[in-house]
Amino acid sequence: MSTWYGLDPAVRQAEAAATWCAEKGVGCVLTGDVAADVYAPWRLPAMAGLYSSELLDFTAAGFTPATDAEYTLVVTVPADRTLWRTAAAAAQPTARVDPTAIDEVLPVRVDPIIALHDVLASAGPDAAEAAEHLRRAILDGAWRG
What we know:
Layout: E1 2-5, H1 10-23, E2 28-31, H2 32-39, E3 48-52, E4 64-65, E5 73-76, H3 82-91, H4 112-120, H5 127-140
Parallel strand pairs: 3-5
Antiparallel strand pairs: 1-4, 1-5, 2-3
């Protein structure tokens, strides 16, 4: 995991980080509040989070290394590679995702369940309420992809 600081709003930071990853040919998916804001908008994203297939230096993308107390972007390299498969399935909920072609699918966000987990783990007094809003949208089948 690496933590970074940026001046732009969280959604713009997430987009800039994802663009940087794409330019480097590194797979990434957005998570947390930024993903939840697409699936079931309720909470204004204050922090950007993404999962990346490898660790990158985001200074050239306009970010500064930050401490755990001041970061606005957190980048995690997950040990579990199925994260990309569930993201692809969520991106195409009506299509069968061929596991052998998963690298050809370019999902933008983690699946809603992973986003829910990450929102629950996020800071802020309204994290539980934001997670409940997303959970309800998932259970009702009302989440947007």
